[in-house]
Design brief:
Elements (H helix, E strand, L loop, with lengths): L10 E3 L4 E9 L2 E9 L4 H7 L3 E6 L2 E7 L2 E2 L2 H4 L2 E6 L2 E2 L14 E7 L1
Length: about 110
């Protein structure tokens, strides 16, 4: 799955007042993306840097692609699970507020 990835090593992106770390985990590899943004939510910050793709659903943005890596439940049962400091998020990315210093994990899960 990493053959499709945009970033394959730790990377810093953007400018802004808030700095958040987003660890992208798929299979046995991960990269940490440090995002600098003035956006209010995780979804907005990820979209600002073209790191996610998906579709709008009943619960907001349903993420199907992160960092170029696809997780399509309809195809192979894979999906993107979101965590903040190791705790599973029950809100969507567009409803998850960010503050400087936050650490998120987006984990390709089957």
């Amino acid at each position: 799955v990493w053959a499709e990835a945009i970033y394959t090593s730790d990377t810093e992106l953007g400018e802004g007042e808030k700095t958040v770390m987003v660890e992208v985990v798929a299979i046995d590899k991960s990269v940490t993306l440090t995002l600098h943004s003035d956006k209010e939510t995780l979804g907005e910050a990820l979209s600002e840097h073209n790191l996610v793709e998906g579709e709008d659903g009943a619960y907001g943005l349903f993420i199907k692609k992160v960092n170029g890596i696809v997780a399509d439940y309809d195809v192979d049962g894979a999906y993107w699970a979101m965590y903040k400091d190791g705790e599973y998020l029950t809100k969507g990315a567009n409803e998850t507020a960010i503050t400087s210093g936050d650490h998120f994990e987006l984990v390709r899960t089957k």
